[in-house]
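[[Per-residue structure]]
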Amino acid sequence: MNSSPLPSGVQPPSLVQRGADALRGLLRSPGFWVVALGALLFLPFLGSAGLWDPWETHYAEVARRMVADGDWITPRWRHELFFSKPVLIFWMMAGSFQLFGISAWAARLPFALLAILGLYLAYRFMARLHSPRAGLAGAAVLATSPFYFFIARQAITDMPFAVFLLGVLSCFALVAMEERPRTRDLIGLYVFAGLAALGKTPMGLAIPVAVALAYLLLTGDWHVLKKLRLHWGALIFLLIAGPWYVTMLLMHQGTFFQEFFLRHNLERAFSGVHGERGGFTYFIEQMGYGFFPWVALLPLALGRLAAVLLRPETAAAVRLAAPDAVGAARARTARLELFLALWLTVTFATFTLIITKFHHYVFPALPPLALLVGLVLTEDEERAGWRFLAPLGVLLLAMVANDLVASPKHLSNLCTYAYDRPLPEALYPRGLLLGLALAAGGLLLGARWAPSRWLRRGLVLFAGLGALWLSWFYVAPLGDTLSQEALFRTYEAAVQRDDQGRPLDKLYQYQMNWRGEVFYSADTIVKLSSEAQVKDAFRGPGRVFIVSVADAFSGIDRIVRQETGRHLHMLPGSNARYALASNRLDPGMQDLSPLAQDVLTQAPADLPHPVSATWAEGIEFLGYALAPETPATGDTLEISLYYRCTRAVGRDWKIFVHLDLQGNELNRLNGDHKPLGGMFPTQHWMPGDVIRDRVRIKLPRSHPAGRHLLYLGFYSETNDDERMRLQPPAPSDGSNRLRAGLIDIR
């Protein structure tokens, strides 16, 4: 092959020059910045905390078994066949484990990379059918939505499924709407369909099929079927998805068909197997939380969509009967927005109609919603909607923000399970969420006076900064509470092993079914199913470790105390959800057990405020101490309450503490709580126990100073109106409230 000679005196570009030119071209590419945004949000601190229970650890253990057993065909959980999900996610994790070792980072890396691919697919789709600016805006909205960047950092099935559906639908739209479809888009459509069938469920392909059929019905553009080359597409799909399904049906026959197709697909959809149920508003709430703060633009996006689709010329453009004045560009835009509306509607309706519901099931509806909002951000003209619909967006934003600021559960529960489990309040960034809501609301209200393009840029900036903070400094450290990894780091550091590396100490689980105990122990942990088995485990002379949910710790401690007369130690790594206990504490190791600190044999001899009272269930009150002794408004008052158990308590009771302003009971401060923060239910109290129960009450600066009456007592776990009977002659107000003393608040 002959190359054209360079002009005389002109040197060919050096390797450095060519590299510099390629770098400049890369930096000028919007697609590069989309990928960079995803990498910035999803990759840092990806493995800084352990895998969350139960889904991440469940799937990771199945993948670990693949690597350990060498069987990459049949997924297994412990010694059972695992037919809940198809094989692709296990291949992804197992391959990563093979390359990088078994860790949280290795488990999550393939899913984070897929999330970045999803952003690029969204950008590419909008850039080709609308404009690069629309692609950038849509990808930015998608990346900075909590639903997306939370699930991007999780090793669960939802990101692969959503990205593959995005690939299927975007490739279909490109083939259908471009005059000369590209071969790679056609191949991509069927490749993504095959991967979706292997990624979560082949039944999920009903969504893109329904979207495509609705689009063809409304446009009348049936010649697209010829462009799709369905016979070749079916072959590509079957070559990708078919081999594993056929192999499983041949190997496991009716068992696989019954479990996978009937129980975990059809029954989950039409009868319900577990999880929640919920009605029409169930996923509206979850989408609101997962789309914060972009919910503020939903009225604008939906108003804009309605305005576009209801124009007479739009109907003509959609049906390819548009007059010349409409033009090809307007026809494509009209069809694009119709397609996005169908994509959103079909996906949302599908998951709303399915019986079994989890918060994250509606996640695949997020991409079309984000792309519609992205179109709002690309408008150059000053539409009246910014001035008239923006206040409605502010109202919607305020409703969502109010819920998010009030409770940490709404964000973390977007991608986890057991929605009532405790969460670390101190970690929750209420101030950030409130500030983000105020900033977004202020920008929207400013649409009446400022050019909307500046407001749009401000929204993108604030949403990006909020997403970065939440992704790096909330989602990542949240795993310290939602994972068992820290417990097992303590165990690995403390356990004694023989020359072959086999543990000499015993490791048990009790009242646990959260999957992490199996994954982090490499399936060596032994399950205890009864109190008798717990007693047997601690009878011998050796060291014993036991993993449990935190709420069960006091029950295990009671069993062991009955057998040995000694408290268990709670080891470092234990958190609000999980506890690692042992009958032996290493030198220098901190005992985190509140029972060791607050379950005593006798009350202090110098108790500052002794009081004598008895309740009917066999609980005596001995007195209390204050810190500070003379509190002031603005302080946090700690009240240490001392009780003695005289006989076994037959049920669980909560403790109420009332500080009533003398002469005006309407000015009351409450300190209702579970004993020892829920770690020591009254049913676990043993005769002779002296319990120091500490309650902290914030004294607002707005609260009136003066003398307060301290009332306390016990009320039912199940009925707030039922109180434990206070025995005479204890000082009482006649409603089973013990009048324990007076507290002067400055």
Summary: The first strand starts at residue 76 and ends at 77. The CA atoms of residues 277 and 384 lie 40 Å apart. Confidence is low (pLDDT under 50) at residues 321-326.
